[in-house]
Design brief:
Largest sheet: 2 strands, antiparallel
Structural class: mainly alpha
Number of helices: 10
Radius of gyration: 20 Å
Number of strands: 2
Strand content: 5-15%
Distance between the termini: 29 Å
Order of helices and strands: EEHHHHHHHHHH
Mean pLDDT: 78
Helix content: 55-70%
Shape: globular
């Protein structure tokens, strides 16, 4: 996992990130930001010691499904601007939206005027439902038409999910069925 901001590497963690490895990376980041090349502090650094701007950038790198658990690690994470965080994930995770969402108008207005977390949650749940129906179509030969209709009922919101399932590796067992 790599987290960057404005082209600068904030931290990088090999393998799947654990709170311990992220904490080590944050200590290194803190030392890089606040200490000269000559002075090295030996005290331990807590997440709460970092400025809110850096914590927010770190939180943007956390996968949306992990945000609630990650926020439990530090009180300052909960104090960060929640609407901006979830608006960012809505913008980056989903490109296609049903017209009923009026997403262009929502992105144009103040972040506080929209419940971005609820909007993200509803899209995520739609993705889960669409994936379930698609897996049912690929794995069985009965009820395919009904499952396809359920996917169609999601309208334009289904496009992001279907595109993700289209882009599978050539090693996948059902690569031809997905394409």
């Amino acid at each position: 996992m790599t987290c960057t901001h404005e082209g600068h590497l904030l931290f990088s963690v090999d393998q799947s990130p654990s709170l311990y490895s992220i904490s080590d990376a944050l200590v290194e980041l803190h030392l890089r930001f606040y200490n000269s090349n000559i002075l090295i502090h030996t005290r331990s650094i807590m997440l709460g010691d970092l400025p809110a701007e850096i914590l927010f950038q770190i939180l943007l790198c956390v996968p949306p499904a992990s945000i609630p658990a990650f926020q439990q690690t530090c009180r300052k994470f909960n104090e960060l601007s929640q609407p901006l965080l979830w608006r960012y994930h809505c913008r980056t995770q989903y490109k296609y939206w049903k017209p009923e969402h009026d997403i262009a108008a929502k992105f144009a207005q103040s972040a506080a005027k929209t419940d971005w977390k609820q909007l993200f949650r509803s899209r995520h749940l739609a993705d889960v439902a669409i994936t379930h129906e698609l897996e049912g179509i690929l794995s069985g030969q009965t009820g395919r038409l009904e499952k396809a209709e359920k996917i169609i009922d999601h309208g334009y919101d289904a496009k992001d999910t279907l595109r993700r399932h289209l882009n599978v590796s050539d090693d996948a067992e059902d690569v031809l069925a997905r394409r």
